[in-house]
Amino acid sequence: MKQVEHALIVGGGIAGCAAAIALAQAGVRVTMLERQQEWRFQSSGIFIYHNGLAALGSLGVLPQIVSGGFAIADGRNIYLDERGEPITDTYYPSRHPDIPPIVGIRRAEMHRILASRLELLRVDIRLGTTAVRIDQNTAEHVTVTLSDGTTGQYDLVVGADGIRSEIRRLVAGPLEPVYTGLGVWRSVHTRPKDLTAKIMMMGAGKRLGIMPISDDQLYLFGTLPEPAGQWYERAGWPALMQARFAAFGGPARQFLDALSADSEVLYTAVEEVGAPLPWHRGRVIMIGDAAHASTPFMGQGGAMALEDAVLLAEMLSRDVDVESALRAFGEARYPLCKFVQDTSRKVGEAGAQEDADIINTRNETMRRTAQRQVHDFYARMDVLRSQLPLAQSA
């Protein structure tokens, strides 16, 4: 890249690692900052659909992701009610025969794989460090002061520092995450050998999912309304999760019964960020959750971050000036990311219904239309992606 020789990535999560890899593969010298003294990943698992897996293929790590996680070759998703009675099955698509429709993996394992790729590409990773001051006094460079007291000049700064992004404050001003009224509970368990599909159990105001994440493990992920600003003592999380989903039977029952003080459980509030355009200022841009954090109901948060990173590197490699490329990137990604956010929010609202008649109607509607809705969702994503400037010039 003629105009980007040295890039600074702020944030070492999925978006940051992916951006660092994509830019390094394009020949850019990359420095990546991560606030944590060492990488600690508090989310038990993640599942990635085919579009995110395709991006991981572009980053050179798809085989490792598939072997380190659990691929559902037919894309089957089983919907049950809270008692374990069948509602319907759906099947997620794949657009390429070599890419599974969906893979579940421990988040820590995914980051281990990405970190290995970063090391191979000789990305300069600085843990325990973040940006404390950014100056754009010239059109060609960004001067950044780091928390370790050093200062450097960069041709590009990528804010991939998550939902509470400091880079977003520079680009979009005081835009805070919005609480959705929901919380998500996760736990890790031993996987029975015959549990090989993704399962979603739909209850009254609650939903509870089960997803394999390796040959020997799976994770539960459940959402339900939680009071705003509520804080729970970590030691009490297993008992609280058990109580929150006590009404669920069927395949989830054995895992809920197994929760104890020694269980790996995580609770987080569900928040959104919908940054307006532009997503950049000068040569500073935000991607991933910093720009468009979504609710988890379509399972696309990680995939959107991965796609951001791959497309950003591709657009910067074109023969245009940096700011024009950054503007075009934001304009290309915004409609797709907003579509995913809006759809995910609607799905979450449908799953939070508590009225028995509404729940019965919802379940009956799912039997008739769920597979078509899956098809329509991914077809719409394909249309929005085909409108990208890069796709038009290919």
UniProtKB/TrEMBL annotation:
Superkingdom field: Bacteria
Keywords associated with the record: Monooxygenase, Oxidoreductase
GO molecular function: FAD binding; monooxygenase activity
Domain named FAD-binding: residues: 7-318
Name of this chain's protein: FAD-dependent oxidoreductase
SUPFAM superfamilies from the UniProt entry: FAD/NAD(P)-binding domain
Pfam families in the cross-refs: FAD_binding_3
InterPro entries for the chain: FAD-bd (IPR002938), FAD-dep_Monooxygenase_BioMet (IPR050493), FAD/NAD-bd_sf (IPR036188)
